Amino acid sequence: MADIIQLLPDHVANQIAAGEVVQRPASVVKELLENAIDAGANSIKLIVKDAGKTLVQVIDDGKGMSTTDARLSFERHATSKIRTADDLFLLNTKGFRGEALASIAAIAHVELKTKQEQDEVGTSIEIEGSNVVSQEMVVTPQGTSIAVKNLFFNIPARRNFLKSDTVELRHVIDEFHRVALAHPNISFSLYNNGSETFNLPVSNYRQRIVNIFGNKTNEKLVPVEEETEVLKISGFVGKPEFAKRTRGEQYFFVNNRFIKSAYLNHAISSAYEGLLKNGTHASYFLNLEVDPKTIDINIHPTKTEIKFDDEHTLYALLRSAVKHSLGQFNIAPVLDFDRDANLDTPYHISKDRVNVPKIEVDKGFNPFREEKKSFTSTMSYKKEPTAGWESLYQEIEVKNDNIESDFSDHKFESEVSTGTIFEEDKKIDNGNTTYQLHNKYIVSTIKSGMLVIDQFRAHQRILYEDFLQHITISKAVSQQLLFPLELHFTKQETDIISNLKEELESTGFIFSSILEETMQITGVPVGVPESEVSIILEQLISDIENEVPDSHFSTTDLLAKSMAKSLAIKPGQSILKEEQEHLVNKLFACKEPNVSPTNRTTFITMTVDELDKKFR
Ligand code: ADP
Ligand code: MG
């Protein structure tokens, strides 16, 4: 048989390698910014258009390249940064693989302009899909400008895989933040679609953080400093009371390189133990300096993971340094969090909490309140003073009765369980036919047998349809706040909110002003407690930023989903019997009761036949 193995042509090999290096515009941003830093730049400008899909350009004032180097830089494994494998252990540059430019040039249109200080003129090179289209001498300032246009122009499948501009821009900004945070001694700016989004002058570390995340950040930061023989830790952690619902602001840098480490993240969380509200995450901006010989950054192509020789020691040092700082700045004693009682209180306390959250949350949007006629009696939500065990016992007894009667009613019915049977008996009887299981499921009897509803998902469905209607058809009622509520976000976050202003207003929000980093709210949807507002908006921002690629979901839809998620009865929340029943009825009055807004099953049924089988 003839020989069949061939060496892949370079441009094919490069395209394949590009898959590893370049996943999205943000990957290009990372590589180009890192090259600029390696080139010793003092000032770096990043320009993106359409979230980087049409253009990512980085302009630096670094050392530039000679004509030969400029041409060579696009070859695979062409690097000025290491010469032997041993150099890998002495790295003080970001790059070392010599792969980035070759990969990028394989899948985009690239324009490079570069000049070294000592040269009169610079070099300009244009490459399209690994082919050099032009090379000439140009007049250009010292340093390098690389423009990467039309990413994935020759790989439509990859291009289609990109997410919406909002999502891709979020990734770009994340990379920009990471690099800018690691190098406060370099000035950075970011232009997005022609407007300046960030302008970060050379500054100290604290100021850099504040310039990125907003003035309000300053008061939230607690410094961390620790120096030992093996490790130097410096940076800041966030005061626990400012912890966020989303994991946004968590940054680790090892020798000025952003890394992800679940293990070290755990070290920090454990330093916060007992200080954080459930479900919130502390911010941190920490730099670790270690001997490059003791780490291996070679294990991941995009280099955000790292291997330490002695992880355990690092863990312990980090944990104690953070703990020490939190203690020293008197963080620990001022705690007065309303810890989420749902998870750790005995049942006699849990009785009290039944009325607290729901009185506020459910008032307007909660289906239980909407039909006031049937609900006036529960408006006060007084907990009946029966002892816990007694009432539990009663419920079971009553329920058993019902099951019995249901059984006898339907014993001889020959109907088998099909989707349509359920339609007929979806309305539950009045009376004690519901039961809350583990504060998570609502169990109810239906004609054909038994119904188990996931309370969180079901309530989301109900609220979601409500919100959609409010947003698209009628204006919702708004509840005026006595004092305007002032909330602080980053510039990007307020941008997201102002883009959604109209939709938010049709749910009942009233914004009296939305400035760069502050917004004032004078009205909220009826039933939304003031204390929930920032949580709802935070959740909304993070949902928008992590939006799924299917763009057939409108922002209205996203908003409705997000608010439904924030306001729905959570697992672990106990609800009154009337509420349970109302939830069941409301669910089946929905257009799509079977699934939650995110397409998860809201309920299951089990017919008597099926039960019978189990007892066979
Ligand atoms: P690596 O950074 O791993 O060496 P790259 O493909 O990113 O590989 O870059 C190849 C080479 O091109 C670098 O080693 C460097 O010599 C040169 N280079 C790239 N970007 C710049 C820049 N902005 N300024 C000066 N030289 C650069
Ligand atoms: Mg590089």
From TrEMBL:
Keywords: DNA damage, DNA repair, Endonuclease, Hydrolase, Nuclease. Residues 209-327 form the DNA mismatch repair protein S5 domain. It comes from the Bacteria. InterPro entries: DNA_mismatch_repair_CS (IPR014762), DNA_mismatch_repair_MutL (IPR020667), DNA_mismatch_S5_2-like (IPR013507), HATPase_C_sf (IPR036890), MutL/Mlh/PMS (IPR002099), MutL/Mlh/Pms-like (IPR038973), MutL_C (IPR014790), MutL_C_dimsub (IPR042120). PROSITE patterns: DNA_MISMATCH_REPAIR_1 (PS00058). SMART domains: DNA_mis_repair (SM01340), MutL_C (SM00853). One of its GO terms (molecular function) is endonuclease activity. Residues 433-575 form the MutL C-terminal dimerisation domain. This protein is involved in the repair of mismatches in DNA. It is required for dam-dependent methyl-directed DNA mismatch repair. May act as a 'molecular matchmaker', a protein that promotes the formation of a stable complex between two or more DNA-binding proteins in an ATP-dependent manner without itself being part of a final effector complex. PANTHER family: DNA MISMATCH REPAIR PROTEIN MLH, PMS, MUTL, DNA MISMATCH REPAIR PROTEIN MLH1. Belongs to the DNA mismatch repair MutL/HexB family. This is DNA mismatch repair protein MutL.
